[in-house]
Amino acid sequence: MSSNAFEIAQILEGIRRWVLIESPTERPDQINKLADVVAAGYRDLPAGVERVAGRHGCGDHLVTRSSWGQGVPGILVLSHLDTVHPMGSIERLPFKIDGDRAFGPGIYDMKGGAYLAYHAFRQICADDARPPLGITHLYVSDEELGSPTSRALIEADGRKAKYVLVTEPARDGGKVITGRKGVARFDVFIKGAPAHAGTRPEDGRSAIRELAHVIQTLEAMNDLTRGITVNVGVVRGGTRPNVVAELAYAQVDVRVPTMAHADELVPKILGITSRSDGVSVTVSGELNRPPYEKTSAGAALYAHAKTLAAELGFELLDAFSGGGSDSNFTAPHTATLDGLGVDGKGAHTYHEQLYISSIEPRARLLYRLYQTLR
């Protein structure tokens, strides 16, 4: 490996090219444009590229596999190409460099980290000796939606892998993630009966009043001491102020740190019923990301990464996150380490940024993980 293999300006230029191709989840044409660029980067490498056609309004997924080590469980790298930033965000948040900070939509979550993993793979390919394990890099197009069309791919390759490395951004000054809450989503549909609110209110059955009862029930399930959050984030109902509301609706987000909590809460929420005669309550939903609980295999993978980081001259600490990622799908059955992307701040905002000083050490860490995992 040449001494300038991790030259910061070169890596930052690669990240810039990816950032300039805006790729909101809801624009599969834009995601596919970025996928074209990513796939082209593998043409001169000893790797195969499989393109999985997008469906249900999502973009394509890319699966790249090293030409070596594919017969046995190896390393799976997980990245996503989609961002939450709508088209035109590049005008409001243009790519720019200001001291140690580089700005741009999706630069921190997670184009910076995805590019680091790609660059580290290029350096592995440039070495005289191949590492012991094969490397598969899966780039998905729908992570910001909860990975509805890529989950099967993630789980299939995750079960075949020995290790999973996830290039979501680092947290709180460079911490990797060794645990995440599980995520459940629910839809609440309420049907009552309409009536004139002034002349015959007694004929009505208010869906909005019943929704208020349901919200109180859900809010009472919050338990911050156990790390459980239940949030009613969207409500809709009614047609006019002088009409007793016939219909009401709510969307609910639930976060749980363990499967035991999920097993307790999910049936309870699905079992909510109406308190009012003539009003029906229907709840649908499920746990769509299982909790990422630190296993002994995951702890050993983190310990190995921590040792490598120390050899590279920095301390690698870990953290637990309330947010979900694709690591939630692999951690229950495969040693997984998340948060291996760039350090920075402002994910999903108009000041999203990476810290340029984090580029070289974190790229080198990924390179050393590829090189040393057995």
Description:
This protein has 374 residues and is an alpha/beta fold. It folds into two domains: 6-178 and 291-370, Zn peptidases (Aminopeptidase, 3-Layer(aba) Sandwich); 181-287, Alpha-Beta Plaits, CATH 3.30.70. The chain has ten helices and 16 strands. The protein has helices spanning 8-20, 28-40, 89-92, 107-126, 151-160, 207-219, 259-270, 296-312, 327-330, 359-372; strands at residues 47-52, 61-66, 75-80, 96-98, 101-103, 135-140, 163-166, 176-180, 182-191, 229-237, 247-256, 280-289, 318-321, 335-337, 344-345, 353-355. It has a six-stranded mixed β-sheet with strand order 1-2-6-3-7-14, sandwiched between helices. A hairpin with an 8-residue loop joins β1 (47-52) and β2. α4 (107-126) packs across α10 (359-372) and α8 (296-312) crosses α10 (359-372). The chain is elongated, with a radius of gyration of 23 Å. GO terms for molecular function: hydrolase activity; metal ion binding. Residues 178-269 form the Peptidase M20 dimerisation domain. This is M20 family peptidase.
